[in-house]
Design goal:
Number of helices: 23
Shape: flat
Number of strands: 31
Largest sheet: 6 strands, antiparallel
Subcellular location: Cell membrane
Transmembrane segments: 28-49
Domain PPM-type phosphatase: 542-763
Radius of gyration: 60 Å
Domain GAF: 382-524
Strand order of the largest sheet: 12-11-10-15-14-13
Structural class: alpha+beta
Membrane topology: Multi-pass membrane protein
Helix content: 40-55%
Length: 915
């Protein structure tokens, strides 16, 4: 409420301040202020007079009453007769004074000597005032300047029973206490005056607002000028104005309205329906009084834009005001503006729609779709076949691939999509391709150059009704990439020069997107080629695992996903799968470096945890080398899983560095994810890696994959793992190749966002009859017995051709173990794709190959082994070391090993061909 009043007060003050004193509102306000001020002044004066008279009478009355009451109080006469009257009367007078509300009560003798006083120092002194009337037995009142100041006092005699005056009592009030009542009543009068002034101000503001609203804040001289100019402006404006009354009579028509409607001079005051020459629809609009905005009506040969609004929205007189504009010439201008607007809208939509993907064919399709039917009835896009592959186009219009066809109908006779076309030099397409400028053919039936391309089809095009053509080159960076053909048929107007410019602008906007897509296609193909060159071209020959794989690059960019299959000595096979963080050529190159490092470390026959430790150190060094570069993409982050399967023991040892755990498909069809300890990603350092050893039955499928297979923005990781389980479960007999296909169909979208590497390996244990082993005592005499036993086993396997070399190799290795190593000494022969001889001992000291001098008695054993064996080496075990040597089998025996001995090359290829 206070806020409302404050707002009203501000409004009133602003309203009054803004008014001139010469205005009616200002004069009324000044008059009201003067009246209120006079009334307040007279009220105060009357109050002072009346209050002074009333308060003096009241003061005398109270003083007399108090004095008489005390004079007739019991004990007063006795106190006057006492030896010390002041001692008795002083307490009584003070108590009575406070109760009666007067300023003093004084008791005195007949000489005027005080017995009591509010100021004790005044006791015993003479009373200030007139006492003679009171001594005569009268009550006397007066105003004097006493000890307390200006006082109003009454003096009353104290009489004995016989009427003799024995003393006097005086009581009274100070004058300032008497006049204080006037001061308390004065604010009431002033407040009432201020309230009256506020009400007067508010009333004046309301009156002023109403006057301003009715006069539109115009002064009398301003209103006079307004009416003087009214007719001049109304009749000079180049827009017709009519005012129609509520009953349909024409109240006013300016000169322009009379001209446009050809009205007679005496038209004002006549009903609109009786006006001559008005169109019936125009009459209906003027009589109805409804609102209208730019409605088009005919008036003879003129086209008028009519606007009508009621005149009474704010309480004015009912009726309507009508404005008329001659839009005959504007109609033609509007048509051209609408055409221009549609063309700008077409170019704007083209900018939004074309180039949303980095695909050349998609950009061509988008260009054709945006132009039909808004610009042409049919659109065909022909791109150089090299452009579709990301290469530079040819200099002539040969080898053009029709990449997009769009039209209002599907039964057209134009070349179909996908066709390879060689345009002859006489065609508009060939001329435009060679010159880089658009060609306009307004009448195809009359032009013969384009018909030489295919006369039969050209006649079908003409018979179909296609009659005009624009051939515009797709040109970017000074190179023509292809052609866009715009065709019109039926009753549509032929293309003109303005539309030729529009076609060039439309194609120019699409050319940038097509060129970007072409360059991206080229770079993407280069990156894919680089990445595929770094991945295995074909899987190595081995017998321990039946392997199938898939590698799918991301649609948007290459990544660092990789896999590998590495044969190890003793028929063992190492499987590796990894993922480099990031995308692009840097990730692919880093992937190649890591894969090469894994190959190099695997030749040392390291266990998985040690290999990952070396790989972690390598990634850390790569990061240190790249830290000084400006691009943060050069910093490497990678994950890896490394596993070694031994077909002899049917055990698999694996470790992982930040990678997802593999899946195992058991021979009964169940799928499990082993609880493999998860190490940190490569490059972090500081944490050791742990291995897990699993025993795998024959036929178990080991599934290794990268995160692109199961991770997706639309689903959680657990959901992806469950989908993988469902795709693998229940099909233990399914070949790995089919399992790869089923997994990809179940888990991947049509356009994967990330690279995917999938490796499925089915275990095949080595038959026990292909393995022979012996414990060897630490006695040099045992070497001869071992040669005989080994020779018998080789003869049993049908490898008599290798007997001499194998006996020599084992003799040297066993002799070195007996002489330089420690027990236990063990010999094992493995008959697989090669014949492997292994001698293990309890020492971790590795022998070294060296050249022995002619005078040396020893040092030639390992040299002989290296010359006879195809490969040899050393690997360490928790209990010592193993020295092994491989001998190649005779070619006839290898060819007779059967289909399981070699991996079919076709079975290992991905959907896009060999990786």
């Amino acid at each position: 409420m206070a806020d409302r009043f404050a707002g009203f007060r501000r409004l009133s003050l602003r309203s009054l301040v803004s008014r001139s004193p010469r205005s009616v509102a200002g004069q009324v306000f000044l008059l009201q202020v003067a009246v209120v001020v006079l009334l307040v002044a007279f009220s105060v004066f009357a109050l002072v007079l009346q209050s002074g008279r009333d308060t003096n009478a009241e003061a005398k009355r109270r003083s007399i009453a108090v004095a008489e009451t005390f004079a007739h109080s019991p004990g007063v006469q006795a106190a006057l007769a006492a030896p010390d009257p002041s001692k008795i009367l002083q307490p009584l007078t003070e108590a009575a004074r406070k109760v009666a509300g007067v300023d003093f009560i004084v008791v005195m003798d007949t000489e005027g000597i005080r017995y009591t006083h509010p100021l004790p120092s005044r006791i015993g002194k003479r009373f200030v005032g007139t006492i003679e009337p009171s001594l005569a037995g009268k009550v006397y009142t007066e105003s004097v300047n006493g000890p307390l100041g200006r006082e109003v006092q009454a003096t009353v005699p104290i009489k004995e029973d016989d009427g003799k005056v024995i003393g006097l009592v005086s009581a009274g009030l100070k004058v300032k206490n008497v006049t204080h009542q006037v001061a308390r009543q004065l604010p009431i009068i002033l407040g009432a005056g201020a309230g009256a002034l506020v009400l007067a101000t508010g009333g004046t503001a309301l009156v002023g607002r109403r006057l301003r609203r009715q006069t539109h804040s115009l002064a009398p001289d301003e209103m006079t000028r307004m009416y003087d100019h009214h007719d001049t402006v109304l009749h000079s404006v180049r827009e017709g104005v009519l005012i129609v009354a509520d009953d349909g009579r024409l109240l006013l028509a300016n000169d322009e309205a009379r001209r446009l409607l050809e009205l007679p001079p005496d038209v004002e005051g006549r009903p609109v329906a009786e006006l001559p020459g008005l169109d019936p629809e125009t009459v209906e609009l003027l009589v109805s009084g409804r609102e209208a905005t730019d409605e088009v009506h005919f008036a003879g040969d003129r086209l008028l834009a009519v606007n009508q609004r009621p005149t009474d929205p704010d309480g004015g007189p009912k009726g309507a005001v009508v404005t008329l504009r001659d839009s005959t010439e504007l109609q033609a201008v509007t048509g051209r503006a609408e055409t221009a607007r549609e063309r700008l809208k077409l170019l704007y939509d083209a900018g939004l729609c074309i180039g949303t993907t980095l695909d050349v064919k998609d950009a061509a399709e988008q260009l054709a779709q945006v132009a039909v039917p808004r610009f042409a009835d049919f659109v065909t896009v022909d791109l150089a076949d090299a452009v579709l592959r990301g290469e530079e186009p040819a200099p002539t219009a040969t080898g053009m691939r029709r990449s997009a066809v769009q039209g209002i109908r599907s039964d057209h006779p134009l070349y179909e999509k996908g066709r390879l076309i060689d345009f002859v030099p006489s065609t508009p397409q060939a001329r435009s391709y060679g010159s880089g400028h658009s060609e306009l053919v307004t009448d195809l039936a009359a032009a013969d150059g384009w018909q030489k391309q295919d006369p039969v089809r050209a006649q079908k095009i003409i018979d179909y009704g296609i009659h005009t053509l624009i051939a515009a080159p797709i040109q970017a960076r000074g190179v023509v990439l292809g052609m866009v053909n715009f065709w019109r048929c039926g009753d549509h107007e032929p293309f003109d020069e303005e539309e030729l410019s529009l076609a060039e602008e439309l194609v120019a906007r699409a050319a940038v997107s097509i060129d970007n897509a072409r360059r991206y296609t080229r770079e993407h193909a280069m990156a894919i080629t680089l990445q595929r060159s770094l991945l295995p071209r074909a899987l190595p020959e081995q017998s321990a695992l039946d392997i199938a794989y898939r590698y799918l690059p991301a649609q948007a960019n290459v990544s660092g996903d990789w896999f590998d299959v590495i044969p190890l000595p003793g028929g063992r096979v190492a499987l590796a799968v990894g993922d480099v963080v990031g995308h692009g050529l840097h990730a692919a190159a880093t992937m190649g470096r890591l894969r090469t490092a894994v190959h190099n470390f695997s030749t040392l026959d390291l266990p998985p945890d040690e290999l990952l430790s070396h790989l972690d150190d390598l990634v850390g060094r790569i990061d240190q080398d790249e830290t000084g570069t400006e691009s943060p993409e050069n910093v490497v982050g990678a994950t890896c899983l490394y596993a070694i399967y031994d077909p002899v023991t049917r055990r698999c040892v694996m470790a992982r560095a930040g990678h997802l755990a593999p899946a195992l498909v058991h021979p009964d069809g169940t799928v499990t994810f082993p609880d493999l300890p998860g190490g940190p990603p490569l490059g972090l350092g500081g944490m050791p890696f742990q291995t897990e050893e699993l025993e795998l039955a024959d036929g178990t499928q080991l599934v290794l994959y990268t995160d692109g297979l199961i991770e997706d923005r639309r689903r959680d990781l657990d959901v992806g793992m469950e989908l993988l389980r469902e795709a693998l479960a229940g099909h233990p007999e399914r070949p790995p190749e089919e399992s790869c296909r089923e997994v990809l169909e179940a888990l991947l979208p049509k356009r994967p966002k990330d690279d995917v590497a999938l490796l499925i390996a089915r275990t095949r244990g080595l038959s026990p009859d292909r393995i022979a082993d012996w414990d060897v005592p630490a006695d040099p005499a045992a070497v001869a017995g071992m040669r005989e036993a080994v020779a018998e086993k080789i003869e049993e396997w049908g490898l008599a051709e290798l007997a001499f070399s194998v006996e020599l190799i084992l003799s040297e290795l066993i002799t070195n173990a007996i002489r330089y190593a420690s027990e236990p000494i063990h010999v094992r022969l493995i008959h697989d794709r090669t014949l492997t001889c292994e001698v293990s001992d309890g020492s971790s000291t590795s022998p070294h190959l060296r050249y022995a001098a002619t005078t040396d008695e020893g040092g030639r054993g390992l040299f002989l082994v290296s010359q006879i064996a195809e490969r040899w080496g050393t690997r360490y075990t928790p209990h010592g070391k193993v020295i092994w040597a491989e001998q190649a089998l005779p070619k006839v025996l290898l060819d007779d090993a059967g289909p399981d001995a070699a991996l079919p090359e076709e079975g290992a290829s991905g959907p896009d061909g060999p990786a």
